Amino acid sequence: MSTSTRVETPETAGATERTPLLELRNVGITFKTTTGDVEAVKDTTITVMPGETVAIVGESGSGKSTSALAAMGLLPSNGRVSEGQIFFDGEDITHPSRKRLEALRGREIGMVPQDPMSNLNPVWKIGFQVRETLKANGLPSTDADVAQALKDAGLSDAEQRMNQYPHEFSGGMRQRALIAIGLACDPKLLIADEPTSALDVTVQKQILNHLDRLTDEKGTSVLLITHDLGLAAERADRVVVMQKGRVVESGPAQALLQNPQHPYTQELVRAVPSLTPEDIGAEDEGAAADEIVSIKDLVKEYKIRGSWGRSTQFRAVDQVSFGIRKGHTTAIVGESGSGKSTVAKMLLGLEDITSGTIEVNGRDISTQSGKEWFDFRRRVQPIFQNPYGSLDPMRSVFRTIEEPLRVHKVGDVASRRQKVHDLLDRVALPRQLGDRYPSELSGGQRQRVAIARALALDPEIVVCDEAVSALDVLVQDQVLKLLGQLQEDLGLTYLFITHDLAVVREIAHDVCVMESGRLVEVGSVEDVFENPQQDYTKHLLDAIPGKDLLETA
Amino acid sequence: MPEPQKTVTEHFVAPVLEDQGRAGIENQLDAKPSNLWRDAWKSLRKNPIFIISALLMLFVLFVVAFPGVFTSASPNSNCMLSNANGSPTDGHPLGFTNQGCDIYARVVHGARASVLVGFGATLGVLVLGVIVGGLAGFFGGWVDAIISRVMDIFFAIPLILGAIVLMSVPVMRQNAGIVTLAIVLTVFGWPQMARITRSAVLEVRHAEFITAARSLGMGKLSILFKHVLPNAAGPIIVIATISLGIFIVAEATLSFLGIGLPPSMLSWGHDISAAQPQLRTNPEALLWPSLMLSVTVLSFMMLGDALRDALDPKGRTQ
Known about the structure:
heterodimer, A: Rossmann fold
């Protein structure tokens, strides 16, 4: 194996004849399982040139992370590269020796993992964890070096911060620390596996901007793995789209986005709300619609227990007032901790109201008797975020959807069965699914079951708390369209809680923007998106990935 | 030596395969319906430890229910001192005790008391432990604080020591019997079950499906019994099976010490105790009831272990 190709003479340094930094050539990856071998990645070719940023896009299970892990030799013990070759800087690293692999990692290929919450060791100080990386790669590791690495990753007060533990860091700061570890040894290639998926959009933007600047300065190549096509197109030079373990399309980001060729890519581009917004749900009837919910000066305070029995009041929701129009969708947007979910929980009667009022159909809900509450719950139903947590794993789909009817003693056995079947039809699930258990369903199917359960009692208001945030973009698009269809058919009123402004633009009629418990802006979706009044709203809108592409497209 | 890649900026489009393109809603139903219990059964069916222990347990239960099938000899009457410490003879395959009773008949009939005390105490522990632990875990706050402290107090008292003290109280001595013994073992055995239930309940208490049930207007108790406890069933069943073995041993221990079942009742513990003085001359009288006790307890313990492996999804490899 010669490395002579690394030498770039003026003749060969042309843009089309350089040696790729990383090349996966017709790679297949096979996992051994108890039910036989599973080929997770098939015939996949991915090339990353020096200094280039390449994004792999795909839904969960498409093999995008597996392909990248193979390049670092980090496949789980039951997985192996069964076909093809992997080259790093001209060197075959398909089946490297342990020693070569250890030399590659950190020094040549760095990694920023997905989950900033679990990828830092909670018992060691941040500085120690950075120093460990430097030491392992034989680089100078004095305090000054460690602080410099953290500073480079955009962490202010690095000298003090390096002596703190991970739990003292916010999500964004942890991700910066992980970037510091990933880039500490000036690798030639940085693999970033969903580096910002767990973060708020504004933090995501800061982190990605910083990562861009850093890799530009150092000339680092980046292999970015993401499920967000908008983000990929915005950040990468080239985009590789994967589905079911295969590359379906790859090419320059702009070209691929504006002129997708493969039917899957076309569908994906159509489904991304930030790239191709479309109106979902009932027509806006303007002021003609009555307010079904009116919220006035709503306040929620939590007691935070301090030491020695002292407690301080924390205002999660502060003087919030807005109305929800009947048959329309009102969205509350904000970052985590903005109090948007707390408002929803108070409307659902799951949290007590500290002060202020919520009136539903002109009735103050906090003065309702137990009996009135019980009837109230028939009219207001929730759909939750996590399709894996919102269904009882011990109950079949049929029993889950039937339960609201049983609890409220609606109909007899036969009519309930008919109702469940109607509901399954409505959410486009086959009736045979009734005797399945949640663990057998996909995320999208589960969310459909949760919608069917919420609709069982013919509610007027449905509170969707991040109802589509955990779904893959295609599934998200389907569920949003289903919700829109149901609104048109049944005249439902939605309160839609989300952090994703692109989704809001598609489904909502009215928008409330919340920031640390306070309502900063209320208005129709057109007003808020076209003509935001508050800096915070502008800031949020700016952070939508792929937004600029949309405007130039 | 790899060929240098010529152009990397080209727009590559894969040929469209049948299973690609339109993603649609995947509504195909593959494989058979399955759930936790069906999956558990699937893995248990192939587990030799489960098969052996289940067969042994069924055998023991059969002996308890129909001792007459195994022996026509009476365990108590027809004891003739002329047979004392006698060797096996026709119709008396295991020989005779010091009192001239048929060892085989005594071992067969002795199973009933041990197993009944075991089942009775397990049932008591299940009812008391699951309710108390469920309430503590589900309601939290001061309910949990009080229950947990009481639990700690009982936890500090060893099962056998507590039972010895309580069985020495005259009222208990006079009413000694299967029910009394089961109650005494329940009193000192429930914290284990309560603690397991409490932690299992804590795990699911904040799940979104519980919030969904609350939004339906379901009462707290009906949520506890319909949604929370069924999800905690796995660990509860495992602990119940293992406790069964522990309680059978406890009964034998107490009877051996002379403060368990009254002497008039047949029990392996009594027989072991009675055979002790003749250990050198007639070891069979001690050997057979001990062996039967060990096999029974072992079968329940192994069953519990096998169930734990099958019901704990973390331990299961896909």
